[in-house]
Design goal:
binds copper (II) ion; three-stranded antiparallel sheet; mainly beta; 43% strand
Amino acid sequence: MLLGDLSREDYAKSLPPVFARLCGKLKALDLVALPLGWQDLEDGIRMNVMEFETSPVEGKKAELHRKFIDIQLLISGEEMIEYSLSQPNLALYDEYREDDDYQLTPTLENKNQLFLKPNMFAIFLPNEPHTPGNLVTESKLLKKLVVKVPVELL
Ligand code: CU
């Protein structure tokens, strides 16, 4: 898991080149004006722009990917994301959906929490489960995007 803030001049310094390039493209966009829904960030790399009300983390399932890395960037609002960096125990997960590249677990072992402010991004690699979209102190509207980066680009 990598965490950063596009507002910083040096945000790309510690990022692998593919993330530095894609984050540079994101930084050049008028994020607040981006239309909602799936769109291309560049050829072969898709992103989903979303707007929704944050909700309590309790009772939610964590998601895990195998083929794609998530770059999750908060555009407006605030967001708490739970995640775990422990080796996932796949026996605790439901079936893997090959077409949509995810599987879910109700049990996130050794979990941590991170808090995104606008322009902050969190990058989740395959096998790093995460539960996004959670409220911080109260439910609020957020706008965010998730870039799906094929793992072979890393
Ligand atoms: Cu994800």
